[in-house]
């Protein structure tokens, strides 16, 4: 970014003010037209009811403010030759962003049928919130957008995620005052404590206070200015105020504020990059106060509208039926003087485009908003470098996530110069055993440090803040602008971002259908500190339901993996980090876990997604198995193998098949998920008529839901987490939820025809151990020796 820190802020001349105002009026006209019109776009004839859409949808109230910001961003981008991106927080302000994209030409370049003339304007108007058209939000279909905005709270985190490791980028973020009341937005203000002025770009928040939400006043708009300033200064920002309702005065004030803010940003970056300044910058923020629905109808049906909550959506609602409303709409549209803005063909007149940048400098054309164009392959190390040696199944143990942390350390080191990989998480990197990454990158931190602090680094790429919302928003913004990353989180608390990941999955589903959107790196979750090893933290930390939530979403975009040991975790992580346009959820433990598969076996097993572990079962191929023991997840796998060992010892004549599932979507029919199995394949693996005892990591009904249509579903019996938890021992967690090895043996005996009588004594022994376990842990505080000292004998 080029700027002279000594230059005085621009004072617009009357001619410059008029040119900016003309562009703003044109954008306002186009925004109103999108909400209301389906014909007669230039008002070349008197407005009639049939020119108006039968269903009026959209949000006018925020649009004039967004148009003002867009107009003035155009001026500074062109004057300073900026790399710029804008995140439009009031996502319902779609009409404004679409209007500006059409004016600057990027909309026509993206959608050639929406030409920059009267015919194209008519199509632009009609398609908005219309069947077969485009959404009312700043959606994936909108050029220049990385932020859908249909759900409020995430704009500022997205903006910072976009700025990380893009040192030449200025990200403006328009924050609506309704959005500013949300918890995720409130936490996001602290992102400036993590923004590195040397290696990162800058974020310029524009807090747009138009006073109202749907039906109520907004908190920040009603604060006295000195109190609001104190709040923003407390967040680490220096506020610049722009307010008013007289357009010329507001244009001049906005130009001054933009220039002042960008000059300060340039000076702060130069101080850090050239002069060695190390103290945390105080970045500017613009506080913009304009009336809600500015330039719209002042009054409708005797009630005030402009500057009130009534301007939020559609100010005139009965235009087709009420002649007064139709007359007001025509007066409103003509107040922008469209003949001055568009020529006789309907094209924007050259003078209103005077300050619009060219080429990729246009906000709708910036490659930062189509991050796949900037994406490079991630330099991943060979898995053989990190694979653990497995001489025989169960012959050793490792902490899977600790080994993964060593792989991530190498990724951090390999991207040290290009800076396009980040690890985010809510204060849990070391807790989740990923601390090896600190050898390659510390934790981002711009605040003061104390001698007791460890691994803090003003240039670090490990991001920790105790706000899952902020972590999610940072990573989404980072991925959407062309980089890679991983989100590590305790399994129970990733639910905090349930709604955020919904939005990201919807974004991916839509962009997959837009040929101009280049694929981005997948959003990867590592969920550890999971339900079965949260015995010390208790019931509050025990919830495996995020997987259920994810598998409800668009199957083309979601993947869920439950690797049973270290090498399978490495294989799954390698696959996820290489993938594009997915949300990958990996659930893996951090505690010492038996090593079951060699690296080659792990690769093959993960590629299959589900398979028979013939070394673990007792079938010899001469006949169908009597029972199938299936498992998904590290602890369920351990319990199934222990159960298989008990069955081999006590019922050696029984033919038992052991099946491990690492890719949960494999259980779905092939027509419902790209990873699903055909019925033929499923029946070959699980059989069509033999009892299947399935030990699953999460809620058991998920497995039933995935496999409900299979031939053998009536023979499927699933054990999993039944919302029974407390502070107890690790094995007591599985016993309490009937997932333990002894219960699994009892389940086989109960379901294989003829065993109930023949193996009654074995079943009784299993029940006796469970009872002994109950008394033992309450006396000694630890699990039974035969559990803690168990090894695989195969």
UniProtKB/TrEMBL annotation:
The keyword Lyase applies. Its EC number is 4.1.2.-. The keyword Cytoplasm does not apply. Pfam families: XFP, XFP_C, XFP_N. It is an enzyme of class 4 (lyase). Residues 590-792 form the Xylulose 5-phosphate/Fructose 6-phosphate phosphoketolase C-terminal domain. Residues 12-373 form the Xylulose 5-phosphate/Fructose 6-phosphate phosphoketolase N-terminal domain. Its cofactor is thiamine diphosphate. Coiled coil: none annotated. Keywords: Lyase, Thiamine pyrophosphate. Belongs to the XFP family. This is Probable phosphoketolase. It comes from Streptomyces ziwulingensis. The lineage of its organism: Bacteria, Bacillati, Actinomycetota, Actinomycetes, Kitasatosporales.
């Amino acid at each position: 970014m080029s700027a002279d820190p000594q230059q005085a802020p621009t004072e617009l001349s009357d001619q410059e003010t008029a040119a900016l105002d003309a562009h703003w009026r044109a954008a306002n006209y186009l925004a109103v037209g999108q909400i209301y019109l389906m014909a007669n776009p230039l008002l070349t004839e008197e407005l009639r009811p049939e020119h108006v859409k039968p269903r009026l949808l959209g949000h006018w109230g925020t649009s004039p403010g967004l148009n003002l910001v867009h107009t003035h961003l155009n001026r500074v981008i062109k004057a300073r030759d900026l790399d710029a991106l804008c995140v439009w927080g009031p996502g319902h302000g779609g009409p404004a962003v679409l209007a500006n994209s059409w004016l600057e030409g990027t909309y026509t370049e993206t959608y050639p049928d929406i030409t920059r003339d009267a015919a194209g304007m008519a199509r632009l108007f009609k398609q908005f919130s219309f069947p077969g058209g485009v959404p009312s939000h700043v959606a994936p279909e909108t050029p220049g957008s990385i932020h859908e905005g249909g759900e409020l709270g995430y704009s500022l985190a997205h903006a910072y995620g976009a700025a990380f490791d893009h040192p030449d980028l200025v990200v403006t973020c328009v924050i609506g005052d309704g959005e500013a009341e949300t918890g995720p937005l409130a936490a996001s203000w602290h992102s400036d404590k993590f923004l590195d002025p040397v290696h990162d770009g800058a974020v310029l928040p524009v807090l747009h206070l138009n006073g109202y939400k749907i039906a109520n006043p907004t908190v920040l708009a009603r604060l006295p200015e000195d109190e609001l300033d104190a709040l923003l200064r407390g967040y680490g920002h220096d506020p610049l105020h722009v307010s008013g309702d007289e357009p010329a005065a507001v244009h001049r004030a906005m130009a001054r504020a933009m220039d002042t803010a960008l000059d300060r940003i340039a000076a702060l970056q130069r101080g850090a990059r050239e002069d060695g300044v190390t103290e945390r910058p105080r970045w500017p923020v613009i506080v913009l106060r304009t009336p809600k629905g500015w330039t719209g109808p002042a009054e409708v049906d005797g009630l005030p509208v402009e500057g009130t909550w009534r301007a939020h959506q559609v100010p005139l609602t009965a235009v087709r039926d009420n002649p007064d409303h139709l007359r007001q709409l025509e007066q409103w549209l003509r107040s922008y003087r469209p003949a001055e803005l568009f020529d006789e063909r309907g094209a924007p007149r050259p003078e209103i485009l005077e300050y619009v940048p060219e080429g990729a400098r246009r906000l709708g054309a910036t490659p930062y908003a189509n991050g796949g164009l900037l994406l490079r392959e991630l330099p991943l190390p060979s898995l053989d470098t990190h694979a653990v040696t497995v001489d025989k199944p169960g012959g050793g143990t490792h902490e899977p996530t600790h080994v993964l942390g060593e792989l991530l350390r190498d990724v951090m080191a390999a991207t040290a110069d290009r800076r396009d990989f980040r690890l985010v998480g809510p204060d849990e990197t070391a807790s989740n055993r990923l601390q090896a990454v600190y050898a390659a990158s510390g934790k981002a931190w711009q605040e003061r440090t104390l001698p007791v602090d460890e691994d803090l680094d003003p240039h670090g790429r490990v991001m920790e803040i105790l706000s899952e919302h902020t972590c999610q928003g940072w990573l989404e913004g980072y991925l959407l602008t062309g980089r890679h990353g991983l989100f590590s989180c305790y399994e129970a608390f990733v639910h905090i971002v349930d709604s955020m990941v919904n939005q990201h999955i919807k974004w991916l589903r839509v962009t997959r259908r837009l040929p101009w959107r280049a694929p981005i790196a997948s959003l990867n979750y590592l969920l550890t500190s999971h339900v079965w090893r949260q015995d010390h933290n208790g019931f509050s930390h025990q919830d495996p339901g995020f997987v259920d939530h994810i598998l409800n979403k668009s199957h083309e975009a979601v993947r869920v993996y439950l690797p049973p040991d270290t090498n399978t975790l490495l294989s799954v992580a390698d696959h996820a980090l290489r993938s594009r346009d997915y949300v990958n959820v990996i659930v893996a433990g951090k505690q010492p876990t038996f090593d079951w598969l060699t690296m080659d076996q792990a690769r093959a097993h993960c590629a299959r997604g589900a398979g028979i572990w013939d070394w673990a079962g007792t079938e010899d191929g001469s006949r169908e198995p009597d029972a199938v023991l299936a498992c998904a997840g590290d602890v369920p796998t351990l319990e199934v193998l222990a159960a298989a060992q008990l069955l081999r010892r006590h019922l050696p004549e029984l033919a038992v098949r052991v099946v491990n599932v690492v890719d949960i979507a494999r259980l779905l029919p092939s027509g419902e998920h790209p990873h699903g199995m055909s019925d033929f394949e499923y029946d070959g693996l699980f059989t069509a008529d033999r009892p299947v005892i399935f030990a699953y990591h999460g809620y058991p009904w998920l497995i039933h839901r995935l496999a409900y249509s299979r031939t053998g579903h009536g023979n499927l019996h699933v054990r999993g987490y039944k919302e029974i938890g407390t502070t107890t021992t690790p094995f007591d967690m599985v016993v309490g939820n009937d997932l333990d090895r002894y219960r699994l043996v009892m389940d086989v005996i109960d379901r294989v025809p003829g065993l109930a009588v023949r193996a009654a004594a074995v079943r009784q022994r299993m029940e006796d151990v469970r009872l002994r376990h109950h008394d033992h842990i309450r006396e000694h505080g630890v699990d039974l020796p035969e559990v803690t000292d168990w090894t695989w004998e195969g």
